[in-house]
């Protein structure tokens, strides 16, 4: 299914994960999912943590991209900035980060930092569900109750295209597996 995550950017264009620390009373345990440590640093260290996380995110780390989005979306340690959060969530979303897709879908559904677009919200939430975000399925089902027939038809058409493209990509990869580059032995 990971390959399917990469289909989203071509056609769309345009809750935080539970941490091990939260599950345990041991404050020394750190989730392998967390990259940025925003909740573990004091206010004086926050600028350095923010700088380091942004650097990791700009290198394409999906979890760091998501955490940057959450930081600005929630506005607990920095001023809330939905537009900045949207940018980070979009970057993580197009690479298949399910929690980022979920948050992005909700933002589109609510018109939070972006014009409200039920069709786009529905599609993004369905992608989040396919990629493993359980709450996204319920959210997309609830959203469908608010959509008119035309919006649902368009959403179904786009999702159908996404799935067909994904299946075609899988077939192509099965028929033409990638060939490893030949290893050229060094000559003495």
UniProtKB/TrEMBL annotation:
- The yes or no answer to whether the keyword Mitochondrion is present is no
Keywords assigned by UniProt, alphabetized: Signal
Signal sequence: where?
1-24
Instruction: Write the lineage as a comma-separated list.
Output: Bacteria, Pseudomonadati, Pseudomonadota, Gammaproteobacteria, Pseudomonadales
Q: Is Signal among the key words of this record?
A: yes
Protein name (database record): Sel1 repeat-containing protein
